[in-house]
Amino acid sequence: MTEQNFHRFGGASRYVLDEELAKIVNVSMALEMPLLLKGEPGTGKTMLAHAIAESLEMPLIILNVKSSMKLVEALYQYDTLTRLNDSRFGDSSRDVSNISEYIRMGKIGQAFVADQRTVLLIDEIDKADTDFQDDMLDVLDQMQFDIMEIDRTVSARQRPVVIITSNAKKDLSDPFLGRCNFHHIAFPAPEMMRRIIAVHFPDLSNDLAQAAINAFYRLRQLEGVEKKPATRELLNWIRALQADPDFRIEALSDGVLPYLGVLFKKSSDLEKAGLVAAS
Length: 279
Description:
By secondary structure, this protein is of the alpha/beta class. The chain has two domains: 3-184, 3-Layer(aba) Sandwich (Rossmann fold); 190-278. Helices cover 46% and strands 14% of the residues. It is built from 14 helices and nine strands. The strands form three sheets. The protein has a five-stranded parallel beta sheet, with helices on both faces. A two-stranded antiparallel sheet has the order 3-4. A hairpin with a 4-residue loop joins strand 6 (144-147) and strand 7. Helix 9 packs across helix 10. It is elongated, with a radius of gyration of 23 Å. Mean pLDDT is 90; it is low at 1-7.
């Protein structure tokens, strides 16, 4: 792979990228290895795949992993019900004797058969069991899988850029970790958060941005909070403050924190935040 291709991702229009993350993305593409991203919800793991697809002008295919999902569902589905209905009623243009007409590609299968290279986002892999994780990486290593019903091997036309996210709710196996590049996305520091806000609100006043950031990080430091507000909550909170014609920036400095329900989504957390705001 040429040096020009190696250094080709540097962020997107609405994604603020730090240098270390940019390097690991480009190294993973150069080595053709999956990139495993960990970090608390709201740190931009999923949005990174969107940014890569936008920057490199590739289609984005998203596999949302569920706890009950079997690997074959991510590869392909054999639509036996439709075939049964076609054989009963005979009003379809499909050839019932041709099973391949009833094979539908899953998300990984779609990435393999796509005419152009895609970004394949495998979201929240920690929800799946160990067998799913390890077998999936076998498929991604080999870039092919078998469709047993029609005795056919599907090989990838283009190797996708594979981004895998985990919220670290469950440990991943050592073999899985060993076959991925890894990056932990830390929660943005206030300086980085200011850059993120500037991307989403280019006309926001410095006073409001700084007051909102200061209040936001004070609230994140509350003890006993089950779900700390993330970046998306802060952005929505700023939108709520802007939408209120009676809102004054000075209120945040005075400890008056309106619309806490935009920041906190659990009753116990909202109660703790309300007590701080009232004190």
